[in-house]
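Same chain as my last thread, 280 residues:
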Amino acid sequence: MGVIDRDTSAALRRTTAPVRLVLDNRPVMKKSRNVLAQTKTGSTENVVMIGAHLDSSAAGPGINDNGSGVAALLDIAAALGPRPRVANAVRFAFWGAEENSVQGSTQYLRGLSSQQRQDIALYLNLDMIGSPNAGYFTYDGDQSGRLNPDIPVDAVPDGSAGIERTLSGYLNSAGVRPADMPLSRFTDYYAFLRSGIPVGGLTAGANQLKTEAQARLWGGRPGLPFDPNDHTPRDGIDNIDRDALTVLTRAAAFTVGTYAYSIDGVNGVPARDQRQRTAP
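reply #2:
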Protein backbone atom coordinates (compact mmCIF):
# COMPACT_ATOMS: atom_id res chain seq x y z
CA MET A 1 0.00 0.00 0.00
CA GLY A 2 1.22 3.50 -0.80
CA VAL A 3 0.20 6.99 0.21
CA ILE A 4 0.22 9.91 -2.26
CA ASP A 5 -0.41 13.62 -1.74
CA ARG A 6 -3.42 15.46 -3.14
CA ASP A 7 -1.45 17.05 -6.02
CA THR A 8 -0.37 13.62 -7.25
CA SER A 9 -3.90 12.33 -6.79
CA ALA A 10 -5.29 15.19 -8.89
CA ALA A 11 -2.74 14.53 -11.64
CA LEU A 12 -3.65 10.84 -11.73
CA ARG A 13 -7.33 11.65 -12.03
CA ARG A 14 -6.67 13.85 -15.07
CA THR A 15 -4.94 11.19 -17.17
CA THR A 16 -5.92 7.88 -18.76
CA ALA A 17 -2.34 7.04 -19.77
CA PRO A 18 -0.34 4.29 -18.05
CA VAL A 19 1.46 5.63 -14.99
CA ARG A 20 4.45 4.19 -13.11
CA LEU A 21 4.57 5.14 -9.45
CA VAL A 22 7.84 4.94 -7.55
CA LEU A 23 7.22 4.84 -3.80
CA ASP A 24 10.34 6.39 -2.32
CA ASN A 25 9.26 7.06 1.26
CA ARG A 26 8.49 4.79 4.16
CA PRO A 27 5.29 5.35 6.16
CA VAL A 28 6.07 6.56 9.67
CA MET A 29 3.61 7.22 12.49
CA LYS A 30 4.18 10.60 14.13
CA LYS A 31 2.36 12.63 16.73
CA SER A 32 1.36 16.16 15.74
CA ARG A 33 0.01 18.86 18.04
CA ASN A 34 -2.10 21.97 17.67
CA VAL A 35 -1.09 25.09 19.62
CA LEU A 36 -3.86 27.43 20.78
CA ALA A 37 -3.90 30.71 22.68
CA GLN A 38 -6.81 32.95 23.67
CA THR A 39 -7.14 36.47 25.03
CA LYS A 40 -8.00 36.75 28.70
CA THR A 41 -10.66 39.37 27.93
CA GLY A 42 -13.82 39.28 25.83
CA SER A 43 -16.87 37.06 25.82
CA THR A 44 -16.09 33.36 25.58
CA GLU A 45 -19.55 32.78 24.07
CA ASN A 46 -18.61 34.70 20.89
CA VAL A 47 -15.07 33.56 20.19
CA VAL A 48 -13.37 35.00 17.11
CA MET A 49 -10.94 32.36 15.82
CA ILE A 50 -8.05 32.79 13.40
CA GLY A 51 -5.69 30.03 12.37
CA ALA A 52 -2.80 28.93 10.18
CA HIS A 53 -1.07 25.57 9.82
CA LEU A 54 2.35 24.94 11.34
CA ASP A 55 3.40 21.98 9.23
CA SER A 56 4.89 22.04 5.74
CA SER A 57 5.35 19.64 2.88
CA ALA A 58 8.15 17.15 3.35
CA ALA A 59 9.56 18.41 0.04
CA GLY A 60 10.41 21.91 1.23
CA PRO A 61 11.13 24.31 4.12
CA GLY A 62 7.61 25.73 4.02
CA ILE A 63 8.36 29.45 4.39
CA ASN A 64 5.43 30.61 2.29
CA ASP A 65 3.43 27.42 2.89
CA ASN A 66 2.79 28.17 5.65
CA GLY A 67 5.36 30.15 7.57
CA SER A 68 3.74 33.25 6.07
CA GLY A 69 0.38 32.53 7.71
CA VAL A 70 2.00 31.62 11.04
CA ALA A 71 4.08 34.83 11.02
CA ALA A 72 0.92 36.87 10.44
CA LEU A 73 -0.84 35.18 13.37
CA LEU A 74 2.10 35.89 15.67
CA ASP A 75 2.19 39.53 14.57
CA ILE A 76 -1.54 39.99 15.15
CA ALA A 77 -1.38 38.27 18.53
CA ALA A 78 1.55 40.44 19.64
CA ALA A 79 -0.25 43.60 18.57
CA LEU A 80 -3.47 42.57 20.30
CA GLY A 81 -1.86 41.48 23.56
CA PRO A 82 -3.30 39.22 26.27
CA ARG A 83 -5.87 41.68 27.67
CA PRO A 84 -7.24 43.81 24.84
CA ARG A 85 -10.32 45.97 25.38
CA VAL A 86 -12.64 43.89 23.23
CA ALA A 87 -16.17 42.56 23.52
CA ASN A 88 -15.33 39.07 22.23
CA ALA A 89 -12.44 36.77 22.99
CA VAL A 90 -9.93 36.07 20.22
CA ARG A 91 -8.48 32.56 19.84
CA PHE A 92 -5.33 31.90 17.80
CA ALA A 93 -4.87 28.39 16.38
CA PHE A 94 -1.60 27.02 15.02
CA TRP A 95 -2.61 23.77 13.37
CA GLY A 96 -0.64 20.59 13.10
CA ALA A 97 -1.10 18.04 10.30
CA GLU A 98 -2.79 20.28 7.71
CA GLU A 99 -0.75 18.64 4.97
CA ASN A 100 -2.15 15.31 6.16
CA SER A 101 -5.80 15.76 5.17
CA VAL A 102 -6.31 18.75 7.52
CA GLN A 103 -6.28 16.40 10.49
CA GLY A 104 -5.19 19.02 13.05
CA SER A 105 -8.19 21.30 12.70
CA THR A 106 -10.61 18.44 12.12
CA GLN A 107 -9.59 16.55 15.25
CA TYR A 108 -9.64 19.77 17.28
CA LEU A 109 -13.28 20.43 16.41
CA ARG A 110 -14.26 16.81 16.96
CA GLY A 111 -12.77 17.06 20.43
CA LEU A 112 -14.98 20.00 21.42
CA SER A 113 -18.38 19.61 23.02
CA SER A 114 -21.45 20.88 21.16
CA GLN A 115 -21.54 23.88 23.52
CA GLN A 116 -17.88 24.68 22.85
CA ARG A 117 -18.51 24.61 19.10
CA GLN A 118 -21.54 26.83 19.69
CA ASP A 119 -19.25 29.38 21.36
CA ILE A 120 -17.19 29.90 18.18
CA ALA A 121 -18.66 32.86 16.30
CA LEU A 122 -16.46 32.60 13.19
CA TYR A 123 -13.17 31.29 11.85
CA LEU A 124 -10.56 33.06 9.68
CA ASN A 125 -7.82 31.12 7.86
CA LEU A 126 -4.44 32.33 6.59
CA ASP A 127 -2.58 30.05 4.19
CA MET A 128 0.22 31.11 1.82
CA ILE A 129 -0.17 34.88 2.09
CA GLY A 130 3.30 35.78 0.78
CA SER A 131 3.37 34.03 -2.62
CA PRO A 132 6.13 35.53 -4.82
CA ASN A 133 3.89 35.98 -7.88
CA ALA A 134 1.17 37.20 -5.56
CA GLY A 135 -2.56 37.46 -5.96
CA TYR A 136 -4.95 38.96 -3.42
CA PHE A 137 -7.71 36.48 -2.74
CA THR A 138 -10.53 36.28 -0.23
CA TYR A 139 -12.26 32.94 0.26
CA ASP A 140 -15.58 33.04 -1.56
CA GLY A 141 -18.02 33.18 1.34
CA ASP A 142 -20.84 34.71 -0.70
CA GLN A 143 -20.39 32.12 -3.51
CA SER A 144 -20.35 34.84 -6.17
CA GLY A 145 -17.38 33.43 -8.09
CA ARG A 146 -16.59 30.11 -9.72
CA LEU A 147 -18.16 27.44 -7.52
CA ASN A 148 -16.55 24.26 -6.30
CA PRO A 149 -18.95 21.36 -6.96
CA ASP A 150 -17.59 19.65 -3.84
CA ILE A 151 -19.15 22.39 -1.68
CA PRO A 152 -22.85 23.07 -2.33
CA VAL A 153 -23.99 26.67 -1.94
CA ASP A 154 -26.38 25.75 0.87
CA ALA A 155 -23.50 24.16 2.82
CA VAL A 156 -21.72 27.50 3.32
CA PRO A 157 -22.62 28.81 6.82
CA ASP A 158 -24.55 32.06 7.23
CA GLY A 159 -22.19 34.90 8.03
CA SER A 160 -19.44 33.76 5.63
CA ALA A 161 -20.52 36.36 3.06
CA GLY A 162 -20.19 39.14 5.65
CA ILE A 163 -16.67 38.00 6.54
CA GLU A 164 -15.69 38.14 2.87
CA ARG A 165 -17.14 41.65 2.55
CA THR A 166 -15.16 42.80 5.61
CA LEU A 167 -11.90 41.42 4.21
CA SER A 168 -12.61 42.80 0.74
CA GLY A 169 -13.54 46.18 2.13
CA TYR A 170 -10.17 46.53 3.81
CA LEU A 171 -8.25 45.39 0.72
CA ASN A 172 -10.14 47.85 -1.49
CA SER A 173 -9.38 50.67 0.95
CA ALA A 174 -5.71 49.66 0.84
CA GLY A 175 -5.72 50.04 -2.94
CA VAL A 176 -5.78 46.34 -3.77
CA ARG A 177 -8.74 44.90 -5.63
CA PRO A 178 -9.40 41.39 -4.27
CA ALA A 179 -10.70 38.37 -6.17
CA ASP A 180 -12.61 35.26 -5.10
CA MET A 181 -10.83 32.03 -4.22
CA PRO A 182 -13.25 29.09 -4.46
CA LEU A 183 -13.83 27.23 -1.22
CA SER A 184 -12.00 23.93 -0.92
CA ARG A 185 -12.03 20.71 1.10
CA PHE A 186 -8.24 20.82 1.49
CA THR A 187 -7.68 23.74 3.88
CA ASP A 188 -8.19 24.07 7.63
CA TYR A 189 -11.36 26.15 7.39
CA TYR A 190 -13.19 23.17 5.86
CA ALA A 191 -13.73 21.46 9.22
CA PHE A 192 -15.29 24.68 10.53
CA LEU A 193 -17.48 25.01 7.44
CA ARG A 194 -18.73 21.44 7.95
CA SER A 195 -19.50 22.28 11.58
CA GLY A 196 -21.71 25.21 10.55
CA ILE A 197 -19.25 27.92 11.65
CA PRO A 198 -18.94 30.99 9.37
CA VAL A 199 -15.59 30.97 7.60
CA GLY A 200 -13.37 33.35 5.69
CA GLY A 201 -9.74 34.00 5.03
CA LEU A 202 -6.96 35.14 2.75
CA THR A 203 -4.38 33.67 0.41
CA ALA A 204 -1.91 35.00 -2.15
CA GLY A 205 -2.38 31.87 -4.27
CA ALA A 206 -0.61 28.54 -4.64
CA ASN A 207 0.05 26.51 -7.79
CA GLN A 208 -2.80 28.03 -9.81
CA LEU A 209 -1.61 29.94 -12.90
CA LYS A 210 -1.87 33.73 -12.87
CA THR A 211 -3.95 34.97 -15.80
CA GLU A 212 -3.24 37.96 -18.04
CA ALA A 213 -6.12 39.83 -16.40
CA GLN A 214 -4.76 39.11 -12.93
CA ALA A 215 -1.28 40.27 -13.94
CA ARG A 216 -2.74 43.55 -15.18
CA LEU A 217 -4.62 43.91 -11.90
CA TRP A 218 -1.86 42.98 -9.46
CA GLY A 219 1.39 42.92 -11.41
CA GLY A 220 3.59 39.86 -11.62
CA ARG A 221 4.04 37.33 -14.41
CA PRO A 222 1.08 35.77 -16.24
CA GLY A 223 1.16 32.11 -17.14
CA LEU A 224 3.16 31.19 -14.02
CA PRO A 225 1.86 29.90 -10.69
CA PHE A 226 1.27 32.36 -7.88
CA ASP A 227 3.88 30.33 -6.03
CA PRO A 228 6.11 28.48 -8.52
CA ASN A 229 8.02 26.98 -5.57
CA ASP A 230 5.06 25.47 -3.73
CA HIS A 231 6.00 22.14 -2.13
CA THR A 232 9.60 22.33 -3.38
CA PRO A 233 12.99 22.88 -1.71
CA ARG A 234 12.89 26.47 -3.06
CA ASP A 235 10.12 27.51 -0.65
CA GLY A 236 12.70 29.34 1.45
CA ILE A 237 13.06 32.81 2.93
CA ASP A 238 13.42 34.42 -0.50
CA ASN A 239 10.14 32.88 -1.65
CA ILE A 240 8.07 35.71 -0.15
CA ASP A 241 6.44 38.83 -1.59
CA ARG A 242 6.77 41.11 1.43
CA ASP A 243 4.29 43.65 0.09
CA ALA A 244 1.59 40.98 -0.24
CA LEU A 245 2.46 39.58 3.19
CA THR A 246 2.11 43.04 4.75
CA VAL A 247 -1.18 43.93 3.06
CA LEU A 248 -2.83 40.59 3.76
CA THR A 249 -1.64 40.54 7.38
CA ARG A 250 -3.14 43.99 7.92
CA ALA A 251 -6.40 42.89 6.31
CA ALA A 252 -6.56 39.91 8.67
CA ALA A 253 -5.75 42.10 11.69
CA PHE A 254 -8.46 44.60 10.73
CA THR A 255 -11.01 41.81 10.39
CA VAL A 256 -10.08 40.19 13.71
CA GLY A 257 -10.38 43.58 15.40
CA THR A 258 -13.72 44.30 13.76
CA TYR A 259 -15.36 41.11 15.02
CA ALA A 260 -13.59 41.24 18.37
CA TYR A 261 -15.46 44.48 19.00
CA SER A 262 -18.80 43.32 17.55
CA ILE A 263 -20.27 40.42 15.59
CA ASP A 264 -23.39 42.48 14.75
CA GLY A 265 -24.17 44.69 11.77
CA VAL A 266 -24.57 44.25 8.04
CA ASN A 267 -21.42 42.10 7.85
CA GLY A 268 -22.08 40.33 11.12
CA VAL A 269 -22.44 36.65 11.93
CA PRO A 270 -25.33 34.90 13.70
CA ALA A 271 -25.80 35.47 17.42
CA ARG A 272 -25.18 32.51 19.70
CA ASP A 273 -28.84 31.53 20.07
CA GLN A 274 -29.20 31.41 16.27
CA ARG A 275 -26.27 29.08 15.60
CA GLN A 276 -26.46 25.47 14.55
CA ARG A 277 -23.27 23.51 15.10
CA THR A 278 -22.33 19.89 14.41
CA ALA A 279 -19.17 17.82 14.59
CA PRO A 280 -17.20 17.85 11.30
